[in-house]
Amino acid sequence: MSKYIYELTLKVRDYECDLQGIVNNANYQHYLEHTRHEFLSSIGVSFAELHAQGVDPVVARINMAFKVSLTSGDEFVSKLYIKKEGIRYTFYQDIFRKSDNKLSVKATVDTVCVVGGRLTTSELFDKAFAPYITE
After folding, report:
1. Helix (H, G, I), strand (E, B) or coil at 12
2. Do the domain assignments include residue 135?
């Protein structure tokens, strides 16, 4: 059984590549963030509505290990699962090249919530993520 709770298929666009013909490292953060936002949307959580309610999930730390480079036109699958420790939600995110299922990037993204301008736990996220939290 897979540990992943969500996956999103995307395709590398030409302008995301550097002079070496591979995806520029900074673009992987975009892929990871887009996957997290799409996951939230898939469980009925709107990032914009959260902000309007004074709830702002923010990235506290990112750790990325680059394994196999993606190139222009590559399709890839971005997968994630979540763990919670204290007030921190950690998203474990892996990106696989679709053509051969090779791991391209392995990342952990620590996020925290700022509610009403204060760093705190979020009851909304605790409830929304409860079915998805991996122990």
Report:
1. coil
2. no
Alpha helix ranges (H) inside the chain: 25-42, 47-52, 123-129
Angle at 93 between CA 135 and CA 29, to 5 degrees: 145
Global pTM reads 0.93
Select which of 18, 56, 74, 110 is catalytic: 18
Task: Give catalytic status of residue 18 as yes or no.
Answer: yes
Please name the amino acid found at residue 70: L
Maximum pairwise Cα distance, the chain: 45
With respect to residue 134, please indicate whether it lies within any of the assigned structural domains: no
Tens of pLDDT, residue by residue over 30-65, are: 999 999 999 999 999 998 888 898 899 999 999 999
13: domain CATH number is: 3.10.129.10
AA identity, residue 69: S
Q: Which two three-digit tokens encode residue 46?
A: 């709107």
Structural domain count of the chain: 1
Structural domain of residue 98, as residue ranges? 6-129
Does residue 113 lie within any of the structural domains?
yes
